[in-house]
C-alpha cells in the first residue's frame, strides 16, 4: 500500500511539473488553490494526475498511428493529421462523435478494426479508447472527496486496452494486410506502440490497486485468451 502511494505521488509530482492537460479539453487547466482545491483529498489529486497521464499517452499513440497510417486522415477529408488530433484532444466533448454514427467506447474500437469500415480508422480507434477511459473514471475529469471511482472499472479498462492492442496488431484484410500499421518488427525493430500502451495499462493497474486498497475492495481478476476475448464492462455515458 505504501509503495503504491509513493509511486502515485511521484506520478503526481511529475505531472504537476509538466503543465498537465485536461483529459477532455487538451487545454492546461487553471492552477488555483481556492475552495475547490480544499475539497480534494490526496487520492483525488492522484486520480487526476493518473488520468491526465493516460490521455497524454493516448494522444501520443494517436499521433504515432497517423504518422504510420497517413492515408487514414485523408479518408474523412481532413487537410492534415493535425485536424483530427485537434478534434479529439483540442476541445471539450464526451467522446461521442457524429462521424462514428453513434458508436462509442469498445463498439467504436471494434468498428475501427473491421475490414469493411470506410472511415478514418485511427480516429475511430482513438475515440473509442478515449470514451472507454473516461467512462471508467465515471465520466469525470475532476475529483473531490465525495466522488467514488470504481477500481474494478479501471482494472477492466486496463484489460480492454490489452485486448484492443492485440486486435490492432492482428486485424488484417482478406488479402492478409494489416488494417493499421503500429509496431514494426524491423529490422530495426520499432516497439514504441507497445511501450506506450504498456505504460497506459500499468497506469490503470497501479491506480485500480491503490483505490481498491484504500477502499477495502476486492478486484475480480479476469484471464482471457486474446483471440476470443471480449471487452469487459466499464461505466457507459448516457
Short structural summary:
The protein has helices at residues 2-17, 35-38, 42-68, 70-75, 82-89, 106-112, 121-136, 151-170, 192-215. By secondary structure, it is mainly alpha-helical. The radius of gyration is 18 Å and the shape is globular.
Which features characterize this protein?
mainly alpha; 9 helices; 238 residues
Sequence stretches where pLDDT stays below 50 over 5 or more residues: 9-21, 25-31
H/E order of the elements? HHHHHHHHH
Number of helical stretches of at least 4 residues: 9
Radius of gyration: 18 Å
Q: Would you kindly provide a written description of the structure presented here, covering whatever features stand out?
A:
This protein is mostly helical. Helix content is 54%, strand content 0%. The chain contains nine helices and no strands. It has helices at residues 2-17, 35-38, 42-68, 70-75, 82-89, 106-112, 121-136, 151-170, 192-215. The chain is globular.
Topology (elements, then pairings):
Layout: H1 2-17, H2 35-38, H3 42-68, H4 70-75, H5 82-89, H6 106-112, H7 121-136, H8 151-170, H9 192-215
